[in-house]
Design goal:
46% of the residues lie in helices and 22% in strands. Strands 26-27-29-30-31-32-33-34 form an eight-stranded mixed β-barrel, surrounded by four helices. Strand 14 and strand 15 form a beta hairpin. The N terminus is likely disordered. The protein is of the alpha+beta class.
Length: 939
C-alpha cells in the first residue's frame, strides 16, 4: 500500500544558448563601437588642443596690445616736449597725472637732459636753487653716490609723481648699462627703446621693473641718419614700468582666472630667471558646476603655446601652458559613442537572439501542431484558432518551388492586405510585391526558401487597393516527423509607421525645415560626391555662395514671420531657376549655396548664376507690399580654388563679400587677392569698433553757396576716419561695414550730435546762422527712435530745428514708401529741413514724391559732372530744377567744379551749389577760418 505520493521536483528554467547570429552581431557591434570611439576620441583631442591654442593666442594678442598702449603713453609725454618745447616741473606733472591715473602699472615718468663733463658744475649749481643738495648720482651696490667723471651724463630733471620719487632727481640714466644701452638705441633708431628687467636700489618693492626711453631732438636739425640724430638729441623722456602689473592688466581678469592656466613672461628669451617679468598659475576648478575627479584616472593633456614679441626693441617671450579639459568633459562625445555603441550592440544582439528564438518557436509550434493534427481534430482546431487570432498576417506556403504557392492565410492577412483567402490561394508567396519583385528584401527571402532555411527581410508590399506598406517578413521552414521541409510559415509584421518615422527623421537631418531644400549636412554630402566625381573625370565644380542683400531690413520692419515667408519664396525661385543636376541648399539665415557639378564652361556657369540672380529679383509681395530682392554671390571653382568642401565654401564666402563691397547685386569669382581684402576687412571691423572710443572719427564740412548772392548759407557734414596707421579713410570704405556690423547707429548719433554742437558754436562765435546738413543711412532712417534722437541732439546743442537739414537718399525712401512717408512727417513735425539726396539715381515715383514733406532736392554729382559735354545730362539737370520749383522745393547741385557748370546752373535758376569750385570738405577749424575770410570779404 502506497502511503505517500512522490511529486517530482520542479526543474530550474533552462538557459537558452545564444545563437551564432547574435554572437556575430554583438562582436561586429563591439568592433564598430571601438573604431568609432577611437576616431571620435582623436577628433575631440585635436579640437581641445586647437581651442586651447586659440585662447592662448587671444591672451597673447591682448598682452601685445596692452604693452603697445603702455609704450604709447610715453610717446604722448614725448610729444609734449616736441609740441610745446621746454616745460617746467608743474606742467610736466599736470600732463602726466591723468596718464599715471589711467595706467597704474606706470610707476613714474622722467625727463633727462644730456650734460657734458664741462657743464656739470654749472648745471649742478643751477639745479640746487630748485633742489637743495642736488648732485648727479649713480647707483653703486645698495646706495646712490655722486657720479664719477665721464664725458657725458643723462641726469633726471623732472619726475612724476614727484612726491614718491624725489630722491631719484639727478639720477644718471647712463650709469646703468641696460638703461644706457636702451637710451642710445632709442636715439639711434628714433623710436621707443626698452630695457630688460632692471633691479634698482631705489625700487620700493621687489616687483620686476623695466624702463622705456624716447629721444628728444632739436626741431631745427636734420634727423635722417644715425649721426644726425645723435647730434640733434638734447634729452630723453623715460617711463618706469611695473612689469608684473602691466602684464596682468594686458592679459585681463578672464585669462588670469582661467582654470589650470600657467602664464610666464620674460623680458628676454624664455628661461632666464633674472628676466622673469610675470608668472601666474591658477588651480584646477570645476566645469559646469561639477568638480572634476577623473584626471588621475584618464590622464590629462598638457599644452604649451610660446610666442615672442617686440617691446621697444627688446624681444619678450610669453609662455602659456595649461591642461586641456579632463577626459569626462572634453571627451563627452566619445564616451557617448562608446556607451551608446555598447548599448546598441547588446540591443542588436538581443534582437537577433529574439528573432532566432521566435523563428525556432514558430518552427516548433508548427511541428507540434502538425503532429497534434494527426492525433486529434480538437487540437488541430485549437491551433488553427490560435493562428487565426494572431494580430500579424501569417501565411503557410508549399515548400515546392519556384512559386512556393500559398496554401493558407489567417484573417489578419485579409484585414491588412484587403485580399480574401480564396483570392490568394495558389499564388506565389511574394505576390504582394506586385511588379516590384526585384527588390533586395524579396530576393533575399526567395534565396532562403530554395534550400529550406529560415530568414527574414524588410519588403515593400502592396494592398489590394494599390497602397504601399512595409512588412518585416519572417520565414520558418516546417518539417513533419523528421522528414524534409514540407511547408513554410511566413509571418508578416507591418512596420509602415516605423519606416515613416525613420523617413521623417532622415528628412529633418538632411533638409531645411523652413524652405524644404537641402540643409548644410546634405550640402556637404552632395559637394563631397561632386568633388569625387569631378576628380575622377577631371572636371570642374562651381560653388556659388549667395547672400540676400539687406534682408535684415525685412525682419526688422515686418517681423520674422514675414522674413520666413520671404525666405521660402527665395528658396523656391532658386530651385526652379537651377538645373536638375544642380544642388540648391540653405546654408543658414539668408545664405544659400548653389552647386554646379560637371561644369567645364566658366561662361556657362556664370550665365546660370546670372539667371538665378535675375529670377530672384522679381518683386516679392509681403503683407500687401512689393519687395525687390537682390543678392550678392561669390563663386569658387574646384580644383582651382580648393579641393575640399570647407575650403571652397570659405573662398566662395570671401568672394561674396567682395561682391557686396562692389555695390551688391552682382557676383564675383574668387581670387587669391581677396584673402588680403578679407583680412583687411576684419582688421577694419575690429578697429572701427574702437574708433569712437579712441576719438578717431572726425567731421569735415563742405560749404553750400547761394547761387544768386554767392553767400555761404549752409554746410554738409561729411565723416572721415583718421586711422592711426592707415591715415585718413573716406566713408566709402567703412560706412557699409558699419551698417553690416550694426555700428552705424552709434556713429550716426555721434555725427548728429557733433554737427549740431559745431553749428551752434559757429553761431555763438558770431559767424552767422548756417544750415547744417547731415546724411542719414538706411538703417538710421528705419530706427524707431529716430525723432527722439534728433530732438535730444537739438536740445543738448541748443541749435534750432530749422537750422538742421537731414538728407535721405532716394533709394532709402523708396524701399518702403508708406513707412518713409510716416517717418518724414514725424521729422517735419519738429521743424527740421528734409532733403532727398542723389536725386535721379534711383527709382522715384512722382506720385510718391509729392507726398513726401521735403524741402530740398539734391542733384547727384554724376549729372553735374558732364553738364558742358553731355546734352542728356544737361537736360536731366534742367528738368530736375523745373520739377523741384514746380513742387515749391529748393534745388542743390553737388560736385560743381568748373565755372561753366556754375554758369549753366545759374542760368537755369538752381538755388544752391556745392563743390570743389568753392571748397573741398574742410576740418572744423579750417572751415571756421574759411567762414571768417568770407565774412571779411563781404565787409
Amino acid at each position: 500500500m502506497r502511503l505517500f505520493k512522490v511529486t517530482p521536483m520542479s526543474q530550474p528554467p533552462r538557459v537558452r544558448k545564444p545563437s551564432p547570429a547574435a554572437l556575430v552581431t554583438l562582436l561586429l557591434g563591439l568592433v564598430l563601437t571601438t573604431l568609432l570611439f577611437g576616431l571620435t576620441y582623436e577628433l575631440e583631442t585635436d579640437k581641445a588642443s586647437l581651442d586651447f591654442r586659440r585662447r592662448a593666442e587671444n591672451y597673447i594678442n591682448d598682452l601685445q596690445r596692452g604693452v603697445e598702449d603702455a609704450v604709447a603713453s610715453l610717446q604722448a609725454v614725448n610729444q609734449l616736449f616736441a609740441s610745446v618745447g621746454e616745460v617746467d616741473q608743474e606742467e610736466f606733472e599736470t600732463f602726466t597725472e591723468p596718464l599715471l591715473a589711467r595706467q597704474p602699472y606706470i610707476r613714474a615718468f622722467t625727463y633727462h637732459r644730456f650734460i657734458s663733463s664741462r657743464e656739470r658744475r654749472m648745471f649742478e649749481a643751477s639745479m640746487r636753487r630748485i633742489h637743495p643738495g642736488f648732485q648727479i648720482r649713480e647707483s653703486e651696490k645698495t646706495e646712490a653716490v655722486p657720479a664719477g667723471n665721464r664725458e657725458q651724463y643723462l641726469p633726471a630733471i623732472f619726475i612724476a609723481p614727484k612726491a614718491d620719487n624725489q630722491s631719484r632727481i639727478g639720477s644718471d640714466a647712463l650709469s646703468n648699462p641696460q638703461r644706457a644701452a636702451a637710451a642710445w638705441r632709442a636715439i639711434d633708431r628714433g623710436a621707443p627703446s626698452a630695457t630688460g628687467i632692471v633691479q634698482t636700489i631705489l625700487s620700493a618693492t621687489n616687483m620686476p621693473t623695466f624702463f622705456v626711453v624716447m629721444p628728444l631732438y632739436r626741431s631745427d636739425m636734420p634727423l635722417t641718419t644715425m649721426d644726425e640724430r645723435r647730434k640733434a638729441v638734447f634729452g630723453v623722456t623715460q617711463a618706469v614700468f611695473n612689469a608684473h602689473d602691466l602684464v596682468a592688466r594686458g592679459l585681463g581678469h578672464q585669462a588670469l582666472s582661467t582654470s589650470g592656466l600657467e602664464v610666464s613672461v620674460h623680458a628676454a628669451a624664455a628661461g632666464e630667471a633674472q628676466q622673469l617679468a610675470f608668472h601666474h598659475k591658477t588651480g584646477q576648478t570645476n566645469v559646469d558646476g561639477r568638480w572634476l575627479s577623473d584626471s588621475a584616472l584618464f590622464g590629462e593633456q598638457t599644452l604649451t603655446v610660446s610666442e615672442s614679441f617686440d617691446v621697444g626693441g627688446t624681444i619678450w617671450t610669453i609662455l602659456v601652458s595649461g591642461g586641456a579639459a579632463p577626459f569626462t568633459y572634453s571627451h563627452r562625445a566619445s564616451l557617448l559613442v562608446l556607451i551608446f555603441g555598447l548599448l546598441l550592440s547588446v540591443a542588436s544582439a538581443l534582437n537577433r537572439q529574439s528573432a532566432a528564438s521566435r523563428a525556432q518557436h514558430i518552427e516548433k509550434l508548427v511541428e507540434q501542431r502538425t503532429v497534434e493534427l494527426s492525433r486529434t481534430s480538437r487540437d488541430l482546431e485549437l491551433r488553427k484558432r490560435a493562428i487565426e487570432a494572431s494580430a500579424n498576417a501569417i501565411m503557410i506556403t508549399s515548400a515546392q518551388g519556384p512559386d512556393f504557392a500559398i496554401e493558407y492565410v489567417n484573417p489578419a492577412f485579409t484585414r491588412i492586405t484587403g485580399y480574401q483567402a480564396n483570392e490568394v490561394m495558389g499564388k506565389s508567396f511574394d505576390f504582394l510585391c506586385g511588379t516590384d519583385r526585384d527588390q533586395a528584401g524579396a530576393l533575399e527571402l526567395r534565396a532562403a526558401l530554395s534550400p529550406g532555411t529560415e530568414s527574414n527581410a524588410i519588403v515593400r508590399h502592396y494592398r489590394k487597393d494599390g497602397t504601399q506598406f512595409w512588412n518585416h517578413v519572417y520565414v520558418a521552414p516546417v518539417t513533419l516527423a523528421g522528414r524534409a521541409v514540407t511547408h513554410f510559415v511566413v509571418t508578416q509584421y507591418d512596420i509602415t509607421e516605423t519606416r515613416r518615422y525613420q523617413a521623417e527623421l532622415e528628412f529633418q537631418a538632411n533638409y531645411d525645415l523652413l524652405t524644404g531644400i537641402a540643409n548644410r549636412n546634405l550640402l556637404r554630402d552632395r559637394v563631397t560626391q561632386a568633388l569625387t566625381m569631378a576628380a575622377r573625370h577631371e572636371e570642374r565644380v562651381f560653388i556659388a555662395f549667395m547672400d540676400i542683400d539687406r534682408f535684415k531690413f525685412i525682419n526688422d520692419s515686418l517681423g520674422h514671420r514675414a522674413g520666413d515667408l520671404f525666405l521660402k519664396t527665395i528658396a523656391q525661385r532658386l530651385k526652379r531657376a537651377a538645373r536638375d543636376t544642380d544642388t540648391v541648399a540653405r546654408y543658414g539665415g539668408d545664405e544659400f549655396v548653389l552647386v554646379l557639378p560637371e561644369a567645364d564652361d566658366i561662361a556657362e556657369s556664370a550665365r546660370v548664376v546670372q539667371r538665378v540672380m535675375q529670377a530672384l529679383s522679381r518683386p516679392v509681395p509681403i503683407n500687401g507690399k512689393d519687395f525687390f530682392p537682390t543678392c550678392s554671390a561669390g563663386i569658387a571653382v574646384y580644383p582651382t580654388d580648393g579641393h575640399d568642401f570647407e575650403t571652397l565654401i570659405t573662398h566662395a564666402d570671401i568672394a561674396m563679400y567682395s561682391a557686396k563691397e562692389k555695390g551688391r547685386n552682382n557676383f564675383q569669382f574668387y581670387a587669391p587677392t581677396m584673402n588680403e581684402r578679407a583680412a583687411k576687412r576684419l582688421q577694419l571691423e575690429g578697429d572701427l569698433r574702437r574708433a569712437l572710443e579712441r576719438r578717431e572719427l572726425v567731421l569735415h564740412y563742405q560749404p553750400q553757396i547761394d547761387v544768386s548772392t554767392s553767400r555761404i548759407v549752409g554746410a554738409e557734414a561729411l565723416i572721415r576716419w583718421q586711422h592711426p596707421e592707415l591715415g585718413l579713410i573716406s566713408p566709402a570704405e567703412f560706412i557699409s561695414l558699419a551698417e553690416e556690423t550694426g555700428l552705424i547707429g552709434a556713429i550716426g548719433d555721434w555725427v548728429l550730435r557733433t554737427s549740431c554742437a559745431q553749428a551752434r558754436h559757429w553761431e555763438l562765435a558770431g559767424l552767422g546762422k548756417l544750415r547744417i546738413a547731415i546724411n542719414l543711412s538706411a538703417r538710421q532712417f528705419n530706427q524707431p527712435n529716430l525723432v527722439r534722437m534728433v530732438q535730444s541732439a537739438l536740445a543738448d546743442s541748443g541749435l534750432q530745428a530749422s537750422d538742421l537739414e537731414l538728407e535721405i537718399t532716394e533709394s532709402t525712401v523708396m524701399v518702403d514708401v508708406q513707412h518713409a512717408i510716416r517717418t518724414l512727417h514725424e521729422l517735419k513735425s519738429i521743424d527740421v529741413n528734409l532733403s532727398i539726396d542723389d536725386f535721379g539715381t534711383g527709382f522715384s515715383s512722382l506720385s510718391y514724391l509729392k507726398q513726401f514733406p521735403i524741402d530740398v532736392l539734391k542733384i547727384d554729382q554724376s549729372f553735374v559732372h558732364d553738364l558742358a559735354t553731355d546734352p542728356d545730362n544737361a537736360m536731366i539737370v534742367m528738368s530736375v530744377i523745373s520739377l523741384a520749383h514746380n513742387l515749391r522745393l529748393q534745388v542743390i547741385a553737388e560736385g560743381v567744379e568748373t565755372a561753366e557748370q556754375l554758369s549753366y546752373l545759374r542760368e537755369h535758376k538752381c538755388d544752391q551749389v556745392q563743390g570743389y569750385l568753392f571748397s573741398k570738405p574742410l576740418p572744423a577749424d579750417k572751415f571756421e577760418r574759411f567762414l571768417k575770410q568770407e565774412l571779411g570779404t563781404e565787409a
